[in-house]
């Protein structure tokens, strides 16, 4: 496959839930705003992938992480890859990120980044952006509320292709120069 027909995707998953992130907020000088910190343990896992070359994104929200969900996510990426192109999915070495899962998709290959190197996976910046701009300082009623808020946050992130590209592009992924 010619390199100009290869799309680099970055994939990862993040846990969002009732033990949420708190961040700084704007407040009148001299006041001490309060933020509720929940103690419950309900979570959802957002499997996300971005292609900084064209700004495409794919995601699944699930109640847990396992190889079956991972395979469903890879199917979304494979289906989002145009005919005649090949997707190279870069991901960490989580136990459910098995390379053989990609064997079911002829237009997809998996490359693992080295252990303990999240800085090599730009989707980590997506999780940070979502937490800082959409998810932090919120209270969730239940699992369905977490799913709804995560879906809204992901859709807001992906609604601006320029944001996807600028947040996730890395010079070392340019295969044609």
Automatic annotation (TrEMBL):
Gene3D superfamilies: Ribonuclease H-like superfamily/Ribonuclease H (3.30.420.10). Signal peptide: none annotated. Residues 7-146 form the Tc1-like transposase DDE domain. It holds the Pfam family DDE_3. It comes from the Bacteria. InterPro entries: RNaseH_sf (IPR036397), Tc1-like_DDE_dom (IPR038717), Transpos_IS630-like (IPR047655). NCBIfam families: transpos_IS630. This is Tc1-like transposase DDE domain-containing protein.
């Amino acid at each position: 496959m010619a390199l100009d027909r290869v799309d680099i995707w970055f994939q990862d998953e993040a846990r969002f839930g009732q033990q949420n992130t708190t961040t700084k907020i704007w407040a009148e000088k001299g006041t001490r705003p309060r933020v509720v910190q929940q103690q419950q343990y309900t979570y959802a896992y957002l499997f996300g992938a971005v292609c900084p070359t064209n700004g495409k994104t794919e995601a699944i929200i699930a109640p847990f992480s396992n190889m079956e969900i991972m395979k469903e996510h890879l199917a979304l990426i494979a289906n989002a890859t145009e005919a005649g192109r090949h997707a190279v999915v870069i991901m960490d070495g989580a136990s459910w990120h098995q390379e053989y899962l990609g064997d079911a998709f002829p237009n997809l290959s998996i490359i693992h980044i080295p252990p303990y190197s999240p800085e090599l996976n730009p989707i980590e910046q997506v999780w940070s952006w979502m937490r800082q701009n959409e998810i932090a300082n919120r209270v969730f009623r239940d699992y369905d509320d977490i799913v709804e808020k995560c879906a809204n946050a992901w859709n807001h992130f992906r609604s601006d292709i320029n944001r996807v590209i600028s947040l996730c592009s890395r010079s070392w992924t340019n295969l044609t120069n």
